TrEMBL record:
Keywords: Membrane, Transmembrane, Transmembrane helix, Transport. This is Glycine/betaine ABC transporter permease. Its main location: membrane. It is found in: Cell membrane; Membrane. Residues 23-203 form the ABC transmembrane type-1 domain. The chain crosses the membrane at residues 27-49, 149-173, 185-210. It is a multi-pass membrane protein. Residues 214-240 are annotated as: Disordered. GO terms for cellular component: plasma membrane. Belongs to the binding-protein-dependent transport system permease family. It comes from Enemella dayhoffiae. GO terms for biological process: glycine betaine transport; transmembrane transport.
Length: 240
């Protein structure tokens, strides 16, 4: 038995049940879930990180969501809402919120305080400080949190098949049901792994580029090395 038979067969990539369709479904579930998680976690993280209040809430949310088994949550969601896309997206979004929230809060808390204080001293409004100072400095850690969430969601999106939905998990489930279906199971596992690795490399490169940009901007704005010295002042002693 050649485990690559299913993966390398061009006919297996076409059709509604083909690998191509399953891959697009997997990306759809993952993308919608990540978007929903970012719409919740990033604004909340900005609020907590900017005000420096609510770190206990972040820790509580993170610990609570990490303690929830994804499969158990999926079964509960399917029981309450039925099969389909919604329960899958809900479960994956819950899984993605903690790393994005942690990354956003950490980014704002680790923003250069001198730059933030200087922005306040210049008369910037809180929104201007967030948009022009804190957000650019926090962005590398925000992307790092999204990167962690992407890896978890891509790997866990295979459970979508258990909710009568599509995705690469269908290859695993359908292959297990068929006699001699191990090449199909192998194809599903390899594609999930390859997709996770490719996205991790891309987001890792983006994070590194943002870190270099942030360091360059910090060095450029550093007033310590301006190449000028203060001119001596003379004291005039006026008598009489």
């Amino acid at each position: 038995m050649n485990l690559f038979d299913h993966l390398l067969d061009p006919t297996k990539w076409t059709g509604g049940d083909g690998i191509g369709a399953r891959l697009l479904e997997h990306l759809f579930y993952s993308g919608v879930s990540l978007l929903a998680a970012m719409l919740i976690a990033i604004p909340l993280g900005i609020l907590i990180g900017h005000t420096r209040r609510g770190n206990v809430v972040v820790a509580g949310i993170s610990n609570a969501t990490r303690a929830i088994p994804t499969l158990g949550l999926l079964v509960l969601a399917v029981t309450l809402m039925g099969t389909g896309t919604l329960p899958v997206v809900l479960c994956l979004a819950v899984l993605a919120i903690p790393p994005i929230l942690n990354g956003t809060v950490s980014g704002f808390l680790n923003a250069d305080r001198d730059a933030v204080l200087a922005a306040h001293a210049m008369g910037m409004t809180p929104m201007q400080v967030i948009r022009r100072v804190e957000w650019p400095l926090a962005l590398p850690l925000v992307v790092s949190g999204v990167r962690s969430a992407v890896l978890q969601v891509i790997a866990t999106a295979t459970v979508a098949a258990m909710a009568a939905s599509g995705g690469l998990g269908r290859l695993v489930l359908d292959g297990q049901k068929r006699q001699g279906g191990y090449p199909e199971v192998f194809a599903g596992a390899v594609l999930v792994m390859a997709l996770a690795i490719a996205l991790d490399i891309a987001l890792g490169a983006l994070t590194a580029a943002l870190r270099r940009r942030t360091r360059g901007r910090t060095c450029k704005d550093d007033p310590k090395d301006t190449g000028t010295t203060a001119a001596p002042t003379e004291t005039v002693d006026a008598k009489g």
